[in-house]
Structure formats: C-alpha cells, structure tokens
What we know:
This is Phosphoserine aminotransferase. By secondary structure, this protein is an alpha/beta fold. It folds into two domains: 233 residues, Type I PLP-dependent aspartate aminotransferase-like (Major domain) (Aspartate Aminotransferase, domain 2), CATH 3.40.640.10; 97 residues, Aspartate Aminotransferase, domain 1 (Alpha-Beta Complex), CATH 3.90.1150. It contains eleven helices and 15 strands. Helix 4 links the parallel strand 3 and strand 4. It is globular, with a radius of gyration of 20 Å.
Amino acid sequence: MKMANFYPGPSRVYSHITEYIYEAYMDGVMSANHRSELFMDLMVKTKSTLSEKLCIPEGYELVFTSSATECWEIIAQSLTQKGSQHFYNGSFGEKWASYSSALVPTTNVHFGINEVLPTGDVSEDVDVLCVTHNETSNATIVRQESLQMLREENLGKLIAVDATSSLGGVKLDFTLADVWYASVQKCLGLPAGMGVMILSPKAQEVAYNIGEGNRYNSLVRILDNAKKHQTVYTPNVLSIYLLMRTQKASKGIDYIAEKLSRRLVQYEELISSKAGVSHLVENEAVRSSTVLALKVDDPEVLKSQAEEYGIILGNGYGPWKPSTIRIANFPAIKSREVEKLIGFLDKHL
C-alpha cells in the first residue's frame, strides 16, 4: 500500500486481503450460489467465528445488509410500531434520526459533545431508542455505563446502537442493546460494501410479533433466511468470506482493544506536548478510542503536507470540518504506519 491511510472509513484494509481474495477465487466462493451448500457452510463459519472473536452472546443472530445505512430502514420499518427516540451529538446520529423521521414518528434528544448520554428524558410514545455509540464525525463515544443505565431505566423498549466505527475495535457488551449494526470498512478492516446487524432474542421476537414482511429487506424475511444460513437476496459473498478469514486470523477483541489503547497513549503523549493541536472533545470520559478529532491551526495545509509524506489524514466533518482533522485508530493500521504518522505530526504541529 503506497499511502498510510488514516481516513476514518473507508480506511486501511487488512494486509492479507489479497491472499484471501485469491483463496476465495480458487475455492469457488466468488461464484457460489447463495442457496448452495458451499455458501451455507460459509455463513455458519462466518457467524460462529465473528461471535467467538467479538464475544457475542449465544442467542444473538447475525445478519448481513448492504450497508449500515440500510439498517436505519430495517429498524424503522420492521422493529418500530409507535416511534423511535434518537440520542445524538453529531452528524451521523442526526442523519439516522432524519432518515427515520420519514418512515416513523421520531423524538430527538441532542446533547453536547462533552456531555454523557442523557438517559433521563425518554418519551413514553416511543418503543425504540436509537443511540450512536461512536460518533465518527466528532470522535465521541457513549460509555457502556450510560448504555447500561438506559437499559435499566427502559426495560420495555428496544435499544438500537450504531457501532459503525467501534465494532471490531472496542469490546462491547452486547447485552446492553437489542440491535447493533456497523459497516465493514472501519474497525473490521474490509473494503466497503457490506453491513452487519447483531440482533438480540428480544429484537427477533419483536420483529416476528410485528410481522412486517412487505419489503425485500423486511426483517422477518432476513431472519427466516438466516435460520437456513441463507440470505434474502444475493449478498456480497466475497465480503462475507473476507470477514470470516480476517476474523479467523484475529487474536480476538480483548487483544485488539488493548492494542488500540496502547496506540492511543502514543497519540496522547504527542498531543499533550504540542501547543498547535488539541482534542475537539475536551471531556476525556466521552472521547473515542477508535477515531481522533483534533483541532489544528490549518487543517488543509496539514493534510497537504501529510499527503506529500505518504499519509492520508481524514477531513473534519459537518460543523467541525473547517477546524479539525480526523485520524482513524483502527486495528488494520500497521504499527509502522502509526510511527510514521507520529513522526510527521511531531515535525509539523
């Protein structure tokens, strides 16, 4: 790979991807019929491997979608009866709320980037609570203690969590929510083009009780096919295979989370020593470990200098675009690339 890519998604893919693609070709996976024994065996292996490596509880079902964005539609049309309430402090959580509002009644709770998740203001008129776990636009995270409080105070409601830039990089307690979803191009280290949904037994039960089955991606259809280790429509078979192979090679989420924490310490030591850079998120307690958003004097100049040095930095996003850069702290990024970036930042900040 010519450039060290720190864009927060799509970002660097795992280095053995080309080897795995060749394996998939030689094994006939790329041309496998999605009703075939070969594909069904692949589905079983992929789901069991992902469950093992990410510590997903027994009884939770894994299904695949075209993207995390498709999951917005599935949650609204197949799991929501009365309405959804959205908690967000950034652009992607706001987009989710806006999309849902076109399909179901929504209530929105906006909170600041330095604030913890406000769990005490839940409407009685909703049955699904929607939370962005790791807000990629501003590098905030919702701590699991906050999710636990939300869970304990709202036992009758489903909780859906966008974990797009944390699934595969942060050890998650999946029992704290009923729906978790992500795309594969961030912490899972794959090319873009597929989403993953993780559904609790309660979410599956609600989907069947509602029984919404009028669309090609209705959740009951997806779950019926998942029980047969199949999919509703022809899926991204190659991406499923790559997910299985990369997770099989993984040392597990405990190891990965610890590795990313060690890297974060390196970044923190550099940032604290420089006057020309600071965190966008001042409250360390709600600061992401997989995405950094840094305030710098001239983001465009810094990005151009980095590109000349063989490094891709992420743009700021939304209202923070003019004043920030974003840096991915994803598992597939090599240690030597991190060292290269730290050396560059040390020289140019």
